Amino acid sequence: MLLSSLYPSGFGHGMRAPIARFALIGLLALDAAPAVAAPCAGFTDVQDTDLFCTAVEWIRNRGVTIGCTSTSVYCPAASVTRASMALFLNRLGTALTPRLEYVETALGVVDPDVEAALCATPQIASAAYPRQALVSVAFAGQSTGDLGYATRPMVSTDNGTSWTALTAPASDIRESVSGAAWTNSAASGLYAIPASQTVRFALVVNRQSGGADFAQARCQVAANVMNANGVSSPFEAR
What we know:
Blueprint: H1 13-31, E1 39-40, E2 43-47, H2 53-61, H3 82-96, E3 99-106, E4 117-118, E5 124-125, E6 131-143, E7 147-156, E8 164-165, E9 173-177, E10 182-193, E11 198-209, E12 214-227
Antiparallel strand pairs: 1-2, 3-12, 4-11, 5-11, 6-10, 6-12, 7-8, 7-9, 7-11
C-alpha cells in the first residue's frame, strides 16, 4: 500500500508526516508475531511471563506446594483455607530450618602424614534445591615432640572416597606445638551445595614441619546446612 494513498487530497505537507509515522507503526505491528508464554514451574495456569512466576517456582521446588486440584495446576486466584495455610507454613518452616550435623570423637594417635579425614559427618543431601553449609572444625591434641601442622575443613561428594578443601577459607589454619604439650586449633568455611547433591564434611590435619605425631587427639565437626535464599533452583518434577 502506498503511503500517499492514506492522505486526503486536501491535506498539506505539514500534516502528512505524523500520519505517515502512525501508518508505519500500524503496519509493523501487524507483521510482528505475538510472544508465546510458557507454563511456569510446570503449572499450566501460571505463565513464565507472570510477575509471580519466580515466587511460585521457589515454593514448588521446596515442596511448599505441589499443586491445587492436580500437580499441573496452581489455582492462582483460588482462596486458601486455614487448613491449607497450616500445611503451607509447616512445609515452608521445614524447608527453611537449618539442619545441623555434629560429630565429636576421641581419635587417639594421629599421624599428620596420613592426611586422613577426621570426624567425618554422615552424608547430607541438599534436597531438590540449593543449600549452603557453614562448616566449623576444631582439633586438640598432645604431640610427642616438636610439630608444625595445619587444619582445614574438607568436603566429599563421593561418600568419602576423595576429599577436597572448602573454597573458604583460602588457606590452611597453621599451628605449632613444642615438646609434649597440648595444642588446639579451629577453622570454618562455607560450601554451596548444588541441588540434589549429597555431601560429607570432615577436617584434615596435615604436617607442616617437625617429625612428631599426636599421641592423643580429639576433633569436632559441625555442619550447619541452611536454605540458599535467592539462588535460582532447577524445576523439581512432582
